[in-house]
Amino acid sequence: MVEMIHTQIEKNGFLGDIFVPNALIDNYSRFGGWGIKAALRLFTVTEHRDVVSWNSMIGGLTKVGELREARKLFDEMPEKSIITWNTVLNGYVKAGEMKEAFQLFESMPQRNIVSWSTLVMGYSKAGDMDMARVLFDEMPVKTSVPWTIIISGYVEKGFTKEAIELYDRMGRNGFKLDDGTVISILAACAESGSLAMGLKVHDSIERLKFRCSVAVCNTLVNMYAKCGSLDKAWSVFNGMSKRDVVSWNIMLQGFAMHGHGREALCVFERMKKEGFKPDRVTFIGVLCACSHAGFIDEGIQCFYAMEKDYGIVPEIEHYGCMIDLLGRGERLKEAFMLVNTMPFEPNAVIWGTLLGACRLHGATELAEKVLDHFKLDRMDPGNYSMLANIFAAAGDWDGVATVRLQMKSVGVQKLSGASSIEIDNEVHEFTVFDRSHPNFGSIYGMVHRLAQELKRVAHPKDATLPVEVGELVI
């Protein structure tokens, strides 16, 4: 459509008006790679350019990650506005190139709240909270935006004490809560599992009688659900005066992810009774609930009801849930048949799910078929780990050795999994054989004692102990 309009503009000789090529450049830039090429061609042949022309072109290039070309135009630009500087700065930040971002920031002739906030956000996302805090403290003027960025950054990285301290300071400095601040901080709490910070924000909402929009309530329910506090999530959900489909989906998925399949299906039934039409996300939650709770037949019925009763054509995510459902229920042949008959090319997630089911039930032959005869992502160490575990459980140590050799031949290394726990408003993260925690000595000592006690209680002397080889094989 844009190309057709462009053709008509050229035919009628309207390109002489600077507003017209500027509008075309901006519109082309919204269509990704091919649009940027068209925009750049038009920009190159445009005789008269103003600041808007340059900014639109540079902005389009940064959006598609063409930072080198954007910087080239930036350096060629005769007169730059603060918008130009901030556009390139934002491009570097989004690409994670913080060294270049800081150098550009340092050379800016003037900075505004957007410049400072962008750099604070960049360092927060990069995990360098010390630098983010230095910049935040140096900001000459602060609005609620940088406060929200730095607090959310601390929460995401597990520094709950620092986040609460800044949150209290923000209130003392006279900043009032708004939807953006509440949603951003609660979303960070959900991401990091920081229940303490989430409770702090919820307490502020109730104490200040903050009028919650549906979006804020949804984020609050999601935070409690992700942090494992289902009672509070359910209480907030039931207290909502107005709900949308997203509200129901969040509550349903909250129950599903924690294995409360029956409760999730009850939410689904209540949702329909109250006149809400399920969408594709709803059915992902329903199928996950059935999978985790072992409701195989109910899950199959829901899957086929999607298109028949609601006109929702199953997508690859729904097929993935079904394969997981059948796999967990040891119906591996049906799962394998579904993979071969689904109207999509199976991706790595689909094959990985089937491989995981093979591991669960010790289906060594099917696992080898999955890995050897199909387009499984061979650069994903998790797939090799699962296959090695299947062989180990079957006592096939030659198979384990073969998998390890395959990993080495393609240069794949298995990254250690991580677990986290919140204690005294601080999130502690651990990985396998991690010795970075200041109390690692006493922690490993306790783990060793617990392991010995569990063996003693669960397995009498001379009993054959099952070996969990998840981290030992690879």
UniProtKB/TrEMBL annotation:
GO terms assigned for molecular function: RNA binding
Annotated keywords: Repeat
Gene3D superfamilies cross-referenced by the UniProt entry: Tetratricopeptide repeat domain
Alphabetical GO biological process terms: RNA modification; system development
PANTHER family recorded: PENTATRICOPEPTIDE REPEAT-CONTAINING PROTEIN, REPEAT (TPR)-LIKE SUPERFAMILY PROTEIN, PUTATIVE-RELATED
Top-level taxonomic group: Eukaryota
Protein name, per record: Pentatricopeptide repeat-containing protein
